[in-house]
Specification:
Blueprint lengths: L16 E2 L10 H16 L7 E4 L1 H10 L6 H16 L2 E2 L5 E2 L1 E6 L10 E5 L3 H11 L2 H18 L13 H11 L8 H15 L3 H10 L8 E6 L10 E6 L11 E6 L3 H6 L5 E2 L1 H6 L1 H18 L3 E8 L2 E9 L4 H13 L5 H6 L3 H7 L3 E2 L9 E4 L1 E4 L2 E7 L2 H6 L4 E4 L7 H6 L2 E4 L7 H9 L3 E3 L5 H5 L3 E5 L4 E4 L4 E2 L7 H11 L5 E3 L9 E3 L5 H4 L12 E3 L6 H9 L4 E3 L3 H12 L4
Parallel strand pairs: 3-4, 16-17, 17-18, 18-19, 23-26, 24-25, 25-26
Antiparallel strand pairs: 1-2, 2-7, 5-6, 5-7, 8-9, 8-11, 9-10, 11-12, 13-22, 14-21, 15-19, 16-20, 20-21
């Protein structure tokens, strides 16, 4: 039975699908998710993206409510695939010029790496033979088949064995059989339907739930599913994959920051199992592609009015853009980018202030290694400084141990989305493998957790069970506790400018502890602890100034503003001002 046609405001005539290929019609981000919306945006800018269609978030909601694919979706999936076939002159499951697709999650709110992606879908024995005949490269075709079988076995069938390092498809199939999860179906349509359901289900996984809870994202958000024609970065020496940030996500400097992996697929880079090369290697091997990428990146940065995280694949010397989204960044980068966008005339100061939150500034003001203190410390390992900061704690080896000991140092060979609950609890993350754009690096920057990646084999054995200090600003890990000291916000020009702009947006004055202030004054630190408990002290009518640790917290700032207080005294002014801006809406 065919689903009834319902014309939506964004122009699609399908009930469960959107085809984001009309530059004049912007799709609803809530309906198609951020990933598909970015494909539409890049296509509307004239940039090259592989064709795709989208299963909407409404379909995910219907699946969640009914426990199965909603009526009519299977038929619409076939319609979507036929559109791709006509565009590319290929056949899904065909014995000549076969079409393979990726099946990618995409919530309306960016959640990097939290939900599942399945590449090379549509492969079977006949398709492998067809790929081998078309490319003249049986080894490439065999590798595509092996990768797909491992993806499907892990993400759809639920195999718990490590499938990534197995030699060939036969070995993966044997592992699936040993694990008792069943076989990968040969029918590509069955593969597609099951993969869509698996991506829907990943929106309710433990890692996705933990991420949403940490960031206050609604738990019923669900996900859209983007079905996109495959491009192959592992096809030949003129192929590869990479990630590019238009501005450095560690310190915010406006310079390209990224990595490139020749003869690789995107999963290789973000998984951290392989350490990619610097982006300069693409400039050396394929200068025209690199120049095209830089031009596209600059345009996406300008059009997006923010730093962009761009995923790309090169197939036989042709550049394809797969995604562009606002980049996850450290607190330092958030501040630098906001200020620099004002200097570039992209943002007004008031909007720049709203791009930075109080917690990011508090993170930026965390202690740093005291100059000279590390000189006598024992260096245990070093790697890439993927997310700056300093943390001291017991080194543990599993995310569960990190949850049990909040603030510990999580040490892994590489991290995956299944480690996120431990990464949220950890004080720092250290990995043996991976580069500056791997999963551990990207998620740690989003969490503002100190992270050092790519420390090399033997790191786990060297650190586990020992108290260590991670200096992720320099990429070094020391034995024991190394002395640190606080940062002074008045010595930072970016923070000073944000402070001045924030002051213009709120009625309250925030001043340092040594300043003269009008009375009456309420000092929360002077109230006996047994009288307070965990509550804020009541603010008497007529109080003009509040001070003390409780009045620098978000609840304390809001209470002071609601009571009409004129002055808040705080050792660090900017976090209080930013909280006030968020509470008052910056309407002054």
């Amino acid at each position: 039975m065919t689903a009834p046609t319902v014309t939506r405001p964004n122009g699609t005539g399908y009930r469960w699908l959107v085809v984001p290929d009309d530059p004049a019609r912007e799709p609803s981000r809530d309906l198609v998710g951020g990933k598909a919306w970015s494909l539409w945006r890049m296509r509307s800018l004239g940039l090259r993206v592989p064709p795709a269609f989208v299963v909407t978030t409404e379909a995910c909601a219907a699946w969640s409510a009914g426990g199965r694919l909603p009526e009519g979706l299977a038929e619409e999936l076939e319609t979507g695939i036929r559109l791709l076939e006509r565009q590319l002159d290929r056949t899904f499951g065909g014995s000549e010029r076969p079409l393979l697709v990726s099946v990618r999650s995409g919530a309306a709110v960016s959640m990097p790496g939290m939900m599942d992606t399945i590449l090379d879908l549509g492969c079977n024995d006949a398709v492998e033979a067809a790929l081998a005949a078309e490319t003249g490269d049986p080894a490439f075709a065999a590798e595509v088949h092996r990768r797909f079988t491992a993806f499907y076995g892990r993400l759809v069938l639920g195999c718990t064995e490590d499938l990534d390092d197995l030699a060939d498809t036969a070995a993966v199939r044997a592992a699936l059989d040993d694990d008792g999860v069943g076989a990968v179906p040969a029918d590509p349509w069955e593969q597609l339907r099951s993969a869509v359901e698996a991506v829907f289900a990943s929106s309710r996984s433990r890692r996705a739930v933990a991420y949403r809870r940490h960031y206050g994202i609604p738990d019923d958000l669900g996900t859209a599913v983007t079905v996109q024609a495959m491009v192959f970065g592992n096809l030949d020496d003129r192929s590869g994959t990479g990630v590019l940030f238009t501005r450095n996500p560690v310190d915010g400097v406006r310079e390209p920051y990224g990595e490139y992996l020749p003869r690789g697929q995107g999963e290789d880079v973000v998984s951290g199992r392989v350490t990619p090369r610097p982006l300069s290697s693409l400039a050396e091997s394929l200068p025209d592609v690199h120049a095209e990428l830089m031009t596209a990146a600059d345009r996406l940065d300008r059009e997006g009015r923010d730093a962009q995280d761009i995923e790309f694949t090169v197939q036989q010397g042709r550049l394809f853009l797969l995604q562009s989204r606002p980049a996850k960044r450290t607190a330092r980068a958030a501040v630098r980018i906001a200020v620099e966008l004002v200097d570039e005339g992209v943002l007004e100061p008031a909007e720049a202030v709203r791009r930075v939150n109080a917690e990011q500034v508090r993170t930026l003001l965390r202690p740093e290694i005291t100059p000279g203190a590390a000189a006598s410390a024992q260096l245990l390992t070093s790697g890439a400084p993927a997310s700056p900061g300093v943390a001291t704690g017991l080194a543990v080896g599993t995310p569960e141990e990190a949850q049990q000991r909040p603030g510990s140092v999580l040490v892994r060979r590489s991290t995956s989305p299944d480690d996120v609950h431990g990464m949220i609890a950890a004080g720092a993350v250290v990995t043996e493998q991976g580069g500056a754009t791997c999963h551990a690096a990207v998620v740690s920057r989003a969490l503002d957790t100190p992270c050092v990646t790519g420390c090399g084999p033997g790191t786990i054995e060297a650190l586990l069970g020992r108290t260590v200090t991670v200096d992720a600003t320099s990429g070094r890990v020391y034995l024991g506790e190394v002395e640190s000291s606080a940062v002074d916000e008045s010595s930072d020009d970016d923070l000073r400018r944000l402070t001045a702009w924030a002051e213009e947006l709120v009625e309250v004055r925030v001043t340092d502890p040594d300043a003269d202030v009008p009375g009456p004054v309420l000092d929360s630190d002077a109230v006996p602890a047994e009288e307070l408990g965990e509550q804020l002290p009541p603010i008497p009518a007529g109080t003009r100034t509040v001070r003390g640790a409780l009045f620098t917290t978000p609840d304390g700032v809001r209470a002071a503003l609601d009571a009409g207080v004129e002055v808040i005294v705080a050792p660090h002014r900017l976090p209080v001002l930013l909280t006030a801006v968020a509470h008052q809406g910056g309407t002054r």
